[in-house]
Amino acid sequence: MKIAIAQLNPTIGNLDHNAELILAAAQQAATQNVRLLLTPELSLCGYPPRDLLMQPAFVEQMARRLPQLAQDLPPQMAVLVGIAVSNPTAAQLGGKPLFNSTALLQNGQVEQFFHKRLLPTYDVFDDNRYFEPGSASEYFMLDGLRIGVTICEDLWNDANFWGKRNYAVDPLAELAAQNVDLIINLSGSPYSFAKQQLRESMLAQATQTYGQPILYSNQVGGNDDLIFDGSSVGFNRQGELVCRAQAFESDLMTVEFDPISRDLQPSSIAPQPQDNAEIWAALVLGVKDYMRKCGFSKAMLGLSGGIDSALVAALAAAAVGAENVLGILMPSPYSSDHSVSDALELAQNLGIQTQILPIGELMQSYDQSFAELFQDSEFGLAEENIQSRIRGSLLMGISNKFGHLLISTGNKSELAVGYCTLYGDMNGGLAAIADLPKTRVYALCRWLNAGDNPVIPEHILTKPPSAELKPGQVDQDSLPPYDLLDDILCQFVTQHRSPAEIVATGHEAATVERVIMLVTRAEFKRKQSPPGLKITDRAFGTGWRMPIASRWLPSSVPASPKIALPTRS
Amino acid sequence: MKIAIAQLNPTIGNLDHNAELILAAAQQAATQNVRLLLTPELSLCGYPPRDLLMQPAFVEQMARRLPQLAQDLPPQMAVLVGIAVSNPTAAQLGGKPLFNSTALLQNGQVEQFFHKRLLPTYDVFDDNRYFEPGSASEYFMLDGLRIGVTICEDLWNDANFWGKRNYAVDPLAELAAQNVDLIINLSGSPYSFAKQQLRESMLAQATQTYGQPILYSNQVGGNDDLIFDGSSVGFNRQGELVCRAQAFESDLMTVEFDPISRDLQPSSIAPQPQDNAEIWAALVLGVKDYMRKCGFSKAMLGLSGGIDSALVAALAAAAVGAENVLGILMPSPYSSDHSVSDALELAQNLGIQTQILPIGELMQSYDQSFAELFQDSEFGLAEENIQSRIRGSLLMGISNKFGHLLISTGNKSELAVGYCTLYGDMNGGLAAIADLPKTRVYALCRWLNAGDNPVIPEHILTKPPSAELKPGQVDQDSLPPYDLLDDILCQFVTQHRSPAEIVATGHEAATVERVIMLVTRAEFKRKQSPPGLKITDRAFGTGWRMPIASRWLPSSVPASPKIALPTRS
Prior knowledge:
2 copies of one chain form a homodimer.
Chain A: E1 2-7, H1 15-30, E2 36-38, H2 56-72, E3 78-86, H3 90-93, E4 98-106, E5 109-115, H4 127-130, E6 139-142, E7 145-151, H5 159-162, H6 171-177, E8 182-187, H7 195-210, E9 214-218, E10 220-223, E11 226-229, E12 233-235, E13 241-244, E14 251-258, E15 263-264, H8 275-294, E16 299-302, H9 307-320, E17 325-329, H10 337-350, E18 353-356, H11 360-370, H12 381-402, E19 405-408, H13 412-417, E20 430-431, H14 438-449, H15 458-462, H16 482-494, H17 499-504, H18 509-521, H19 523-527
Parallel strand pairs in A: 1-2, 2-3, 7-8, 8-9, 16-17, 16-19, 17-18, 19-20
Antiparallel strand pairs in A: 1-14, 3-4, 4-5, 6-7, 9-12, 10-11, 12-13, 14-15
């Protein structure tokens, strides 16, 4: 029996478009005699639809669209479509109004529904806000085979794999106990760094444990801050990878299920990008899809001559083509000569357009406006920020005038400690590298330059990073060296370690305390930041829900001998 | 037996401060021979602590603080304290790592824990992200009385009252079946308009149904976008209100429980503000607490001479004192004369300071910067927005220089349809009236003026609203009249009605479609807006989780005969 996975890139809420994607995949699959077609989780509305699910008209439109799709599909094919459906007993028995479901479409009909049982509520997930968990794990019969249906999180509760239970029930174990021949999974599993290795380890162990093959169909594409990486896979009952779809691209992958051996047969295995190549591919897809799905064809950004904007320019060019990217240089009297020359060299290497708008006169105009009010004070943060806000206003003026998407260039390290200007360099519709620590920005640029076409001028990689908001300023006047800072941030933000635990790894207590204080105080800036493409397990996006007017500063840093701060390597 | 409710205003995460609030209330209660003291939900950490709960060090600090508090409390008093505690079987049985609990402190000990059973996940609530539901509703014995313990949402599942079940279990019914003498509830129930009436109706019905009195202890104070209104109450077994604490203020309320009649005795009933007075009190508290808890003593805002900034100036003056409020007037060549004179009159009425910073020269500087790039285009939205961004940058410059909190002045109607400038008039640390529709802004100002001290100049109330970003501009050039707009917005945003349903209430189909399109397209602006004080059931804050790059525009508006748009009344 031939099975196909349609690794689709739906647009949230665009039901007709998404239905057409499913239909087109089915028609292509039909030419290959596919008997069963899988699509991703909630493939009809796209994942995550979030509060669109609170509009009854939206849910009704979905419910009407499904039987229509069933009629349009090739009748000889069984197609599994993801859809949110009403929970008919919610009002009577108590419960959420919807199920997150998989619909089996066949013979022109909607034949059966399967409901997601494990509803994630951690990180970016709010499944429990909308959905009632399904009460049983079930299979359907196809050509004499029992095919067990799971949805995304349903697979993520293997106590042996995780060393603990995440949920009270394990759908996988329940299906295995029903002696199914194949377990299929419709997923909307967002990308984070190296997550595919985790998924494959988990699926390998699950298939080995139960001796039942698994086919895993993941969504692909960018939806706001979330990137879905695709990389749908199949594992046979020996726990071996038998097929893998493209990473970060739509795909239609076929695989043969042999009814005699009751197992998946080896098929094509697409290469999985690793390390920097993986992050690069994720970010390019995130930028491309945000622009496409919001209706932008051209991107723009401020080019400072620094490494962050260099990387974002390269990303934008890769996402929508260099000819569709405009870089704006906005030197001030405090800008170094190389800030312009490095930016122009970068732009030339990339082939993007540039404009130069010096800001000196605008700075003078603001100085004059503030002259009376600020007369007794010295040049300080207010004046530094004004420069950034002039640039932000110029960028938005151009964005408004020409309809380009402004992409902001801040990295995760500065967003964490607030080393960025609200309404200034934070401006933009999308923050492309907001989840990349500064050290990773460097690594990614070096990787990019090691490729066929080195585009980042070497000087951008070697000069000390600087916001250039006052003469001679460098980032390390205000911040610990980035390798130290990023390590502390990773421990505090991602791993939720206490100050004492971080100090125990060799950091100076005063530095740790200061970094944590900066992180806590910068919450108000993050609250107003554009969506930032999620790359790590813990991004400052929809999965970061921190109070602002709060006063928890862990004060348990033990007194420790002064540790000399190493200089930047 | 004397019982007291400590209606506290904790600061999120400030465990020592919150413990001191509890202790001070207990000491005061001890002077009145109080036997049992209630505090609000999660009173030790403040509600909602959000992702602070993901830091193990935070949870551990709370766990250590509780027995210390127990030792410090008057030993003869039973005190109920809200705290998040570890779920010891989470890893083994599956489940969330914490319980949302009430601790019974007595005799210097932590004697017992009670866990919240119904975990809300709608609107602003994420309880299920952190907490495992408790599995049973229990009581404790005090002087021979059975006192049943519930936490907030546990009371909100009366199928008779709501006409439907919200959850599968009903803790209230379970406690009633155990023949408790009194049901107590520790709440962190955020304010929304007229919610107290709803709470009291619900509690009246519950006490009548089960014939058991209820004491309801609510948190008070502002925490980011949420305002907690206090108004803690008691209902006797006949369903009569016997006591009510202050609205929007900390309070210590005592009430007598008579062990013979096994009922609460009538006590003091604080007045409950209604309608505009209620909203006003809520907003003043929201501004005051955001400032206090973030460490600001002075506020500032842009004064345009319009009604929104007039209301926000009055709010700020009421919250922190007129002497701590600075209004900045930033007239442009397009500004009317009355924009300055009305603003100055307002400032004089309020007694706040002002500064005038004309923006004409800055506009010219931007024009010159853009001259070459914009040479082939006409004056349009880009230029209009520049004026707003100049003002936003001036305001932030002053805020940065002097450490004043900038309060933004946008209302809900403009935030809904995007009639506001990102990085311009949206700038600020707090959006004081972001959940007030424009028609409510007018109503609130008229109510304010009807009081002892009319402060809003009459001309501000009567002139047509205008952003004054080009000559002769008024809001209604771009938007439907506000009474129509607000009605459509209420139906679409709050009531989740479909376009067809809205049209059926008498609105023109084209207007409805246009408004819905504007709302959908403005999502990117709302994503970057400051926290806005929540006043309605459906605010654009933590409870609004809408995708940006999405394409659902309900297209089911039926063709309808042209309905003449009524002019503004």
